[in-house]
UniProtKB/TrEMBL annotation:
A Pfam family recorded for this sequence: Response_reg
Keywords: Phosphoprotein
Gene3D superfamilies: 3.40.50.2300, CheA-289, Domain 4 (2.40.50.180), SH3 Domains (2.30.30.40)
InterPro entries xref list: Chemotax_regulator_CheV, CheW-like_dom_sf, CheW-lke_dom, CheY-like_superfamily, Sig_transdc_resp-reg_receiver
Modified positions (4-aspartylphosphate) in chain numbering: 226
Organism: Photobacterium lipolyticum
SUPFAM superfamilies listed in its UniProt record: CheW-like (SSF50341), CheY-like (SSF52172)
Location of the CheW-like domain: 9-150
Annotated protein name in UniProt: Chemotaxis protein CheW
Ranges where the Response regulatory domain occurs: 172-293
GO BP terms: chemotaxis; phosphorelay signal transduction system
Length: 299
């Protein structure tokens, strides 16, 4: 019997992009923090890419995060005083240069609120919270990455046989992700092969949708959920589904932007059938097909 959704708590790394505003990313995305190191130019790179850093034999691009999200870029004078946050996201090691590191703090992800309207159209912010009475904006790293390193179009569009498509079409599929870019990628993948689906932007809404559908006698068959979400995260969502007698026939596919074996093993611990590092459309569709096969054997 599983007693808890996950033993791995995720904190927040707080850092500065401007003098006054604090920003954060989840610590599971952070591999390391290092002082500024000399960068090598990368020809024809994105305007926000400052160059490449070589750290312990690994070469990775370094991005001016302030510029990437629309703030004034770092000046040459202040760059040498900055820090590089090395992230492991979407199967890619990337460094984000920031003006300063504040601290790592524990976080109750259930307390993350949606961005207020006063933030305007800053699409890179997925949520806000307060730490020591100071507003902290949670950045959407996946969206940043998609703008700077656009995905190969071929990776976004799966290939299916007619037989495989007809296996999936009758099933009720629920996609859950707090990242707009991830939702768009998932939607485009299924739209391209004419597979219907439903969408939720957070774990709690998804859980309620599944409960209502089950009560109405039209249960969902496949759940595709991000792991790292404010509020009810993917681990907790999978745990809730597996421990509900009316929901536990749903085939659960968790996906993560973290290239981490820990994430995958913990996904299985909470009852997920599949755990994928996102995003590769054919991998996702074939995971769904395995769910369709399991559904066919239980009907």
């Amino acid at each position: 019997m599983i007693k808890s959704a996950t033993n791995q708590s995720q904190g927040m790394l707080l850092f500065q992009l401007t003098q006054n505003q604090s920003f954060a990313i989840g610590t599971l995305k952070v591999k390391e923090i290092v002082p500024y190191t000399k960068l090598t130019s990368i020809p024809h790179s994105h305007p926000t890419v400052l160059g490449a850093a070589s750290l312990r034999g690994v070469t990775l691009p370094v991005i001016d995060m302030a510029k990437a999200v629309g703030y004034p870029p770092l000046s040459k004078n202040e760059i040498k005083k900055c820090y590089i946050i090395i992230t492991d996201c979407q199967r890619k090691l990337v460094g984000f240069l920031v003006r300063g590191i504040n601290k790592i703090t524990e976080c109750n992800w259930h307390d993350i609120d949606a961005p207020p309207a006063s933030l305007g159209n800053n699409v890179f912010v997925t949520g806000v919270t307060k730490v020591e009475d100071k507003l902290v904006q949670l950045l959407d790293v996946e969206l940043l990455m998609s703008k700077i390193f656009p995905a190969d179009p071929d990776s976004l569009h799966p290939v299916l046989t007619d037989i495989e498509r007809e296996m999936l079409r009758p099933l009720k599929i629920l996609l859950v992700d707090d990242s707009a870019v991830a939702r768009r990628q998932l939607s485009q993948a299924l739209d391209s092969i004419s597979i219907p689906y439903f969408i939720a932007t957070n774990g709690l809404d998804a859980l309620n949708m599944m409960k209502r559908a089950a009560e109405a006698g039209e249960p969902f068959n496949i759940l595709v959920s991000d792991i790292e979400m404010p509020g009810l995260d993917g681990y907790e969502l999978a745990f809730e589904v597996q421990n509900n007698d009316k929901l536990n026939t749903i085939y659960i596919i968790l996906h993560t932007s973290l290239s981490s074996e820990i994430s995958v093993s913990q996904a299985h611990q909470v009852g997920a059938h599949e755990a994928l590092t996102k995003f590769e459309a054919n991998e996702l569709i074939h995971a769904m097909l395995r769910g369709a096969e399991q559904h066919a054997t239980t009907v």
